[in-house]
Amino acid sequence: MTEAAKEMPHHLVPGSLPDEVSEAVAELGLGRAIAYARGGGRPKRRQLTLYAFDDGAVFTDRRDRVVAAPYWDDVRSLLFDVHVLIDPQLDIGSVLHQFVRFLTFDIDDSAALSLELWDAPDRTLASDYATYGMREDLRHEFAPLVSAVRDKVSAAQMPRLCQEITEGAEVRFGPFTVSRDGLRGNAELLPWSAKPLIFYGYQWNDTPPKGNRGLVTVRCGPVDGGPSSHGPELMRAWSAQVPNLRTLERLCDGMQSDPPFIPSER
Length: 266
Prior knowledge:
The protein is α+β, with helices and mostly antiparallel strands. It is built from 6 helices and 14 strands.
């Protein structure tokens, strides 16, 4: 790897790719390199490296052998979740130990691949975290890769899903369903006129692994208080139960546009 690549650990420069990755990129025409990250993986808890490109991804094992090379169109579902792990220490109080980001890919004609990215916390004491929250976009090491992957998968999915819903089909996102009539969850239908909005946050989980986990909530709004004032929480689910969350967010926005459903360009 070049010195420039070492200084920018998520951005690839010419000459920094393993040979098998370069060959796969050339053969498949995956385009420009965006970012990469190495982490724990499944199955068998193996180490995986994910290289993200304009038109697809390449997964390699610890020996830099290519495990999978899907186009973004091949990713049927992408699960994203974050755990904030707490380490109780009686002398100074609870300490934030790690953030764990989970990216799980369900790829056509292939077993699901999961990447676990361990991050250092941006705050030390849990009391500070509870008071000030988490500065995910400012500090955390893997934010560029995670954001790029979620955007690419969503952009690949949007045209097909928009067409299906326009033709009257319903699209499932775990416990949520999107249709021309509205957003359904918890056996309740919210019409698009209610302006349902998707929020991603965190909530304490008492079952292992204990700590804060990603939580998806749905609120209506904005209400009379202004554009940042929203109605009460109406639906919720753990983010690990909601595949393609970025796509769900974009579909909800698109269904409330005028005219509805104008997919962003890929």
